[in-house]
């Protein structure tokens, strides 16, 4: 089932949601999902503010509020591994937001305490190679990046002379924001980062590319109270799909 089926009839166009991405729900979980109840709901993801994951969580929070759901409280973690260890535990958030591109996303699927509750697609911010100075110097280039964004080193091919003039030394980063921070602190020469990270640390994009649509997954507790009447599709309804 998709989110538009949950809208109230006769919704005033003036109240239209400015973030109209579709949300796909696990059908059997809709009636009792905390994602649709008013109240307060902590959701963990990779932080701090400015990471692509936090941007996506902010959009999800706006969307759920538009549907009459809870007020989402972001809970930032330094890594998805830390989030996986914390979600669903005492003191940890009940829900986790994970991008499909995360290297450890498969581990969330196989966790015995978690289950996929919803998915949606939302674009990432602009990404690029950013520096403190006005240009990149050829030679050894200490490039801060997440493992997942290493392939964006190919953006250097858009510079005059391409990648040939650089000897890339990888500087591991925990997030796009952390990569930008490493450059601001002088621990790297350039960073593969997003536009919020670039702006926060006052860097300059030497070369960049537009954001891309990303699939985001919301994982929640594996066991929830079930409705007494299960959600089913009649044969006629199925044939009419």
Features:
241 residues, alpha/beta, D-Maltodextrin-Binding Protein, domain 2, 6-stranded mixed beta sheet, 5-stranded mixed beta sheet, 11 strands, 20% helix, 29% strand, disordered N terminus, disordered C terminus, Prephenate dehydratase
Please explain how this structure is put together.
This protein is of the alpha/beta class. It folds into two domains: 17-124 and 214-222, 3-Layer(aba) Sandwich (D-Maltodextrin-Binding Protein, domain 2); 127-211, 3-Layer(aba) Sandwich (D-Maltodextrin-Binding Protein, domain 2). The chain is 20% helix and 29% strand. The protein contains six helices and eleven strands. The protein has helices at residues 52-66, 80-86, 105-110, 176-184, 195-200, 235-239; strands at residues 23-25, 40-46, 71-77, 95-99, 114-123, 127-131, 139-145, 166-172, 190-194, 204-209, 213-221. The strands form two sheets. It has a six-stranded mixed beta sheet. Strands 8-7-9-6-10 form a five-stranded mixed beta sheet. Helix 1 (52-66) links the parallel strand 2 and strand 3. The longest helix has 15 residues, at 52-66. This is Prephenate dehydratase. It comes from Streptomyces chilikensis.
Q: How is the CATH topology of the largest domain named?
A: D-Maltodextrin-Binding Protein, domain 2
Q: For the CA atoms, what is the radius of gyration?
A: 21 Å
CATH homologous superfamily of the largest domain - what is it?
Periplasmic binding protein-like II
CATH architecture of the largest domain: 3-Layer(aba) Sandwich
Q: Please report the number of helical segments.
A: 6
Structural class: alpha/beta
Output the strand order for the largest sheet.
1-5-11-4-2-3
User: Mean of the pLDDT scores?
Assistant: 82
Share of helix, binned: 10-25%
Beta percentage is: 25-35%
Order of secondary-structure elements? EEHEHEHEEEEHEHEEH
Distance between the termini: 11 Å
The number of distinct β-strands equals 11
Q: Characterize the overall form.
A: elongated
Query: What top-tier CATH class of the largest domain fits best?
Result: Alpha Beta
Give the total of domains: 2
Q: Largest beta sheet, briefly?
A: 6 strands, mixed
- Poorly predicted regions are 1-11, 225-241
Organism: Streptomyces chilikensis
Protein name: Prephenate dehydratase
């Amino acid at each position: 089932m998709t989110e538009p089926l949950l809208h109230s009839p006769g919704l005033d166009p003036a109240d239209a949601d400015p973030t109209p991405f579709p949300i796909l729900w696990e059908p059997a979980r809709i009636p009792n999902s905390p994602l649709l109840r008013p109240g307060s709901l902590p959701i963990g993801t990779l932080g701090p503010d400015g990471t692509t994951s936090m941007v996506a969580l902010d959009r999800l929070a706006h969307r759920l509020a538009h549907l009459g759901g809870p007020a989402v409280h972001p809970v930032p973690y330094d890594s998805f591994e830390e989030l996986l260890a914390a979600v669903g535990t005492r003191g940890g958030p009940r829900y986790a937001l994970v991008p499909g591109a995360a290297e450890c996303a498969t581990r969330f699927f196989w966790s015995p305490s978690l289950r996929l509750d919803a998915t949606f697609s939302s674009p990432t911010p602009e990404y690029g190679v950013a520096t403190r100075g006005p240009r990149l110097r050829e030679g050894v280039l200490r490039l801060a990046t997440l493992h997942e964004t290493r392939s964006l080193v190919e953006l250097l091919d858009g510079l005059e002379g391409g990648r040939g003039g650089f000897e890339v030394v990888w500087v591991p980063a925990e997030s796009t924001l952390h990569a930008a921070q490493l450059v601001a602190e002088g621990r790297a020469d350039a960073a593969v980062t997003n536009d919020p990270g670039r702006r926060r640390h006052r860097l300059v994009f030497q070369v960049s590319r537009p954001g891309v649509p990303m699939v985001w997954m919301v994982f929640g507790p594996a066991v929830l109270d079930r409705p007494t009447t299960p959600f089913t599709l009649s044969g006629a309804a199925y044939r009419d799909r």
